[in-house]
Amino acid sequence: MTKKPSYEELQQRIKELEKEAVEHKRSKEELQTILDVVPVMIFQKDRDGKTIRTNQAFDNMIGLSKEEIIGKTTAELFPEHGKDMMKDDQEVMELGKQKLDIIEHYDSPEETRWARTGKAPIKDKEGNVVGLIGYAADITEQKQAEEALREKTRDLGERVKELNCLYNISHLVEKTDISLEETLQETVDLIPLSWQYPEITCARLILQDQTFTTDNFNETVWKQASDIMVHGERIGALEVIYLEERPGSDEGPFQKEERSLINAIVERLGKVIERKQAEEALKQERDKLQDALAKVKILSGLLPICANCKKIRDDKGYWNQIEAYIRDHSEADFSHSICPECAKNFYPEFYKGD
């Protein structure tokens, strides 16, 4: 038979329990103090999913006091997404394994925030799961920085495509072994690769009575166009077209950088056409000059001339006065006078020579 403890022993045991209770309370307070200075949101739940501990960061995040939080389930604290979060909690406790995740949540309709979360089961001495402890770290700024970096990378890639387009057009222009028509067609073929969605992009260049298109050209409502100007006059237009609908951007589905690119392309094409026209005009003038020089050279060759009247026969068989022939085939002209010998023969009464 077990001996009953004496009164003194009971009093001693009560004091020990009171001391343990005080130490336990102090430990809890110290732990809570530590948790409250941690900037990460920390929470603890029992097996039923009710909240039994949180830190100050958690309380501040949801905007409630600790008294309003303790004893509440996740579904009660987060009405919009709480049920899904509770399913996740139950999965951790049922499997008895920790889980790390990145979740998206909304503090307001205007702002999306992100959190990195971790949850681990809490077990008793016998290994039974009695709850879980977890944390949530706000990584919104990190996600925003990552997205900004991705956006910058995409922008850089787009700008590289644009520069390649302009470089390739410049390379085409410098070729001397292709015609203007070939230059314009190859330029049109280059354009889709430089737009945001090359797989659904086509292009058309209209130049007076000529039209150049990509093989996949089809007209739709998603169009971006720019006029081609030469000497201040519109002589055509360049059109870039999406074959399928895409999300709205700065100009319909097109970016402001694509507007700058199409304007730069038509400006360059205008200069190319001006140069080609100048080269053609120079060639025509050169041909005229060569024809004129060829005609002048005829005068230095053998000329059929009448031994009596001195008329010259042209290449069509007609006989022309010598002065008329020379005037028509050179820059020379004539003014008429009379030499002394002819004056003596034809006008002796007026000539008083020796």
Which short descriptors sum up this protein?
single chain; 354 residues; alpha+beta; Beta-Lactamase; 3 domains; 5-stranded antiparallel sheet; 4-stranded antiparallel sheet; 10 helices; 21% strand; rod-shaped
Map the helices and strands.
Elements: H1 7-37, E1 41-46, E2 51-54, H2 56-62, H3 66-69, H4 74-77, H5 82-95, E3 99-108, E4 111-123, E5 129-138, H6 140-174, H7 180-190, E6 201-207, E7 210-213, E8 223-230, E9 233-242, H8 256-298, E10 312-313, E11 319-320, H9 322-329, H10 340-346
Antiparallel strand pairs: 1-2, 1-5, 3-4, 4-5, 6-7, 6-9, 8-9, 10-11
Helix pairs in contact: 6-7, 6-8
Task: Describe the protein's architecture and organization.
- Helices cover 46% and strands 21% of the residues.
- It is built from ten helices and eleven strands.
- The strands form three sheets. A five-stranded antiparallel sheet has the order 2-1-5-4-3. It has a four-stranded antiparallel sheet with strand order 7-6-9-8, covered by helices on one side.
- It is rod-shaped, with a radius of gyration of 49 Å.
- It has 354 residues and is an alpha+beta fold.
- Helix 6 packs antiparallel against helix 7 and helix 6 packs parallel to helix 8.
- The model has no long low-confidence stretch (mean pLDDT 82).
- It folds into three domains: 126 residues, Beta-Lactamase; 126 residues, GAF domain (Beta-Lactamase, 2-Layer Sandwich), CATH 3.30.450; 52 residues, no CATH class.
